[in-house]
Amino acid sequence: MLKYRLLTTLILIPIVIAALFLLPPSGFGLVVITVSVLAAWEWGQFAGLFTQAKRITLAVLFAVGLLALQYSLSDLSHLIEKPLIVYLLWAGMIWWAAAILLVITYPASASIWKSSTALRLLFGVLTIVPFYCGMMVLRTQGYENNPYHGAWWLLYAMLLVWGADSGAYIFGRTLGKHKMAPRVSPGKTLEGLVGGVLTATLISWLFGKFAPVPVIPENLLLISAVVVIASVFGDLTESMFKRESGIKDSSLLIPGHGGVMDRVDSLTAAIPVFAGLVLLISSGFGL
Question: What is the reported pTM?
Answer without folding.
Answer: 0.93
